[in-house]
């Protein structure tokens, strides 16, 4: 009996209670217990409606896939901060909802696989719900992800404090703004907000939806601005650095984080610079994990890069709920997943 047949027979067909405002929940039925993000691992999603604790209705069977632009080697995740943001958000949701797992696939947009084209997709990041349902507009993807895991809680003050950060950075990196004055102002604004709140994350002591948006962008700013503009986030922004350190300790962040070189490349293409201008873009050194900032005094980007090059490349895994679903980042970075990996 196939997995689909078992799921259909196990479901109890009832008429949905349309007066119940509860949204559809996503339950994933993986074909194996190890989810490797860069493989064509089949993950079946059954959307269940639960009007009561004893009755469920099988709505559909489909595969939930996040497509992200491939890096320079055509296999690993690229440095697009939007893809990092979506990847981290889905991992964070999976930590909160044991029914949610997903497949992440990299794609070369100039030579996409048939399944990418057949879904009507032309660019990444994209979210594929089924063979004929997919989204490739970031706002639409974010809206669709509200159907899975914990819903977004509004954090208006945090949203206001971070609203202009990435736009200001884009102006600076593209030389629309020659001086970093505006970027410094936005970073200081976040630092002051964090200092006034006295919490580990933007909306509280636990990470939330908005942290999955802001942390990937802050990381891209820190890496790219140093490489392309010799710009360092000032060490006196102690609350901002403490926030970044807390973010770097999240498995959802480290698992989804692209390498430094891919972030350099992404921002270089955006700013129309060349590899000749920035030799750091040439090479195969990978920094899949962001640094652990011990103190403000030794947290400069150059010291961080040197420390991670000295340590060499490593791989690691995150264990989600339930325990038999493992998210192996070694698969993302193209290395075998071994028990000895850090």
From TrEMBL:
Disordered as annotated region, ranges: 1-21
One MF annotation (Gene Ontology) recorded for this entry: chloride channel activity
Matching SUPFAM superfamilies: GST C-terminal domain-like (SSF47616)
InterPro entries assigned: Glutathione-S-Trfase_C_sf (IPR036282)
GO cellular component, one term: cytoplasm
PANTHER family listed in its UniProt record: CHLORIDE INTRACELLULAR CHANNEL EXL-1, CHLORIDE INTRACELLULAR CHANNEL, ISOFORM A
Designated name of the protein: GST C-terminal domain-containing protein
């Amino acid at each position: 009996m196939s997995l689909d047949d078992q799921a259909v027979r196990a479901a109890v067909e009832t008429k949905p209670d349309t007066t119940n405002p509860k949204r559809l929940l996503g339950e994933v039925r993986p074909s194996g217990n190890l989810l490797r993000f860069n493989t064509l691992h089949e993950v079946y999603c059954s959307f269940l409606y639960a009007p009561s604790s004893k009755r469920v209705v099988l709505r559909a069977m489909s595969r939930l896939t996040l497509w992200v632009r491939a890096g320079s080697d055509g296999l690993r995740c690229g440095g697009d901060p939007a893809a990092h943001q979506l990847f981290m958000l889905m991992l964070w949701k999976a930590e909160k909802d044991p029914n949610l797992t997903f497949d992440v696939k990299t794609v070369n947009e100039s030579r996409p696989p048939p399944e990418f084209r057949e879904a009507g997709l032309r660019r990444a990041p994209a979210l594929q719900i089924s063979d004929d349902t997919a989204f490739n507009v970031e706002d639409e993807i974010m809206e669709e992800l509200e159907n899975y895991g914990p819903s977004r809680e509004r954090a208006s003050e945090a949203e206001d404090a971070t609203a202009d950060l990435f736009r200001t950075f884009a102006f600076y990196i593209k030389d629309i703004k020659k001086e970093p004055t505006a970027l410094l102002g936005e970073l200081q604004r976040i630092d002051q907000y964090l200092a006034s709140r006295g919490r580990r994350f933007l909306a509280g002591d636990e990470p939330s939806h908005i942290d999955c948006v802001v942390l990937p962008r802050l990381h891209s700013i820190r890496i790219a601005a140093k490489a392309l503009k010799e710009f360092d986030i000032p060490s006196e922004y102690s609350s901002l650095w403490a926030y970044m350190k807390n973010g770097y300790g999240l498995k959802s962040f480290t698992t989804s984080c692209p390498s430094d070189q891919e972030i350099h490349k992404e921002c270089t293409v955006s700013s129309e610079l060349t590899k000749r201008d920035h030799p750091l873009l040439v090479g195969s050194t990978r920094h899949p994990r962001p640094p652990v900032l011990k103190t403000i005094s030794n947290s400069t980007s150059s010291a961080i890069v040197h420390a991670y090059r000295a340590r060499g490349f490593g791989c690691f895994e995150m264990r989600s709920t339930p325990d038999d679903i493992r998210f192996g980042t070694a698969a993302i970075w193209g290395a075998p997943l071994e028990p000895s990996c850090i």
